[in-house]
Amino acid sequence: MAAELLLTFALEETLKRVSSIAAEGIGLAWGLEGQLRKLNQSLTMIKDVLQDAARRAVTDESVKRWLQNLQDVAYDAEDVLDEFAYEILRKDQKNGKVRDWFSLHNPVAFRLIMGQKVEKINRALDEIRKDAAGFGLGLTSLPVDRAQEVSWDPDRETHSFLDSSEVVGREDDVSKVMELLTKHQHVLPVVPIVGMAGLGKTTVAKKVCEVVRERKHFDLTIWVCVSNDFSKGRILGEMLQNVDETTKGSAVDGASHIRHLNLVSRGDDEAALTAVDAKKLRTVFSMVDVLNGPWKFKSLRTLKLRRSDITELPDSICKLRHLRYLDVSDTAIRALPESITKLYHLETLRFTDCQLLEKLPQKVRNLVSLRHLHFDDPKLVPAEVRLLTRLQTLPIFAVGPDHMVEELGCLKELRGALKICKL
């Protein structure tokens, strides 16, 4: 039932985005409010059906196909909503400029195209709801309890590595948790470990993690720390990124529904990419230049090309409107194209150990969602960095004619280490 639980997470994140777009109201959604409300209602009902499915042992192939179809539609819905959000950000950047009537950025054309996409998704969800009734899946009658708000230590970060000297006399506790985890063959259990601070709850969890890995009770064991930021979207993302590389590689062959692809350990990137639908991929880790090949990426959120053979990013990278994370570290890349500044959703940009990279695009300030900037060359501090007000990570700041130390006062969300040069 892990797939159903992860899918519920994804749908809840999609619901949040629908509500956000509806709340924004901005003229872009004018004329589409009814369709967006229907989409919101449909996803809410589907989520309830999904929670019903997650309580059962779903082994029927037709139900599995239903879940896969639902996942496809959920991803499509998120992409459409992401396009709304992108257009809002783009409009903010271009405010006041004359638009070409025939451009896709024309408000009338945009509403028409988005209206058709939302209508298509609503029709697909109607069919999915009908199919769910045929499988005996219905709406849950019991409300879902919300976890109580807890005040977390913002600096707390845990991992699964365990020093054997940490565990003394906890064998019974570990055995009880193990029994609860393994006695249910067809139900995904949630086993909370509750107690006062300092009693060793995390230590018990680490030991359980160690035991299930050694005994191979499950196909996959993942440790994700949720203390710092209890965000379902982040937790889901970390779970997907921590999936074992060999599992990912073996699952690629012939699987057109794959969304997350780690090719770093395969060595046969071209064959793997041919086996999947590149337009559906959301995550790609690769050590070859996949951007200048025949593959047409459309929905990428994460692109990691660290230590790859890439030497330049194509101007067409601006078409990856959904991109949140881009890593070109330790490559022979010589320049970043100006078009990269149109990636308004980009949150993390990494270009450390890029010895041939001389300068950044002039309008990096347009990356209004940028939170984490990783580099190690003082001459690569972005121009007008003070305008990147969401920045949380800035490793280096070089004082000079183009950068006054007072600029740092505008970056109120900065955290972590910062090296200031040439004071």
Automatic annotation (TrEMBL):
One of its GO terms (molecular function) is ATP binding. Keywords: ATP-binding, Nucleotide-binding, Plant defense, Repeat. Pfam families: LRR_14 (PF23598), NB-ARC (PF00931), Rx_N (PF18052). Residues 11-99 form the Disease resistance N-terminal domain. It comes from the Eukaryota. Residues 170-247 form the NB-ARC domain. Residues 295-415 form the Disease resistance R13L4/SHOC-2-like LRR domain. CDD domains: RX-CC_like (cd14798). The keyword Repeat applies. Gene3D superfamilies: 1.20.5.4130, P-loop containing nucleotide triphosphate hydrolases (3.40.50.300), Ribonuclease Inhibitor (3.80.10.10). One of its GO terms (biological process) is defense response. This is Disease resistance protein RGA3. The lineage of its organism: Eukaryota, Viridiplantae, Streptophyta, Embryophyta, Tracheophyta.
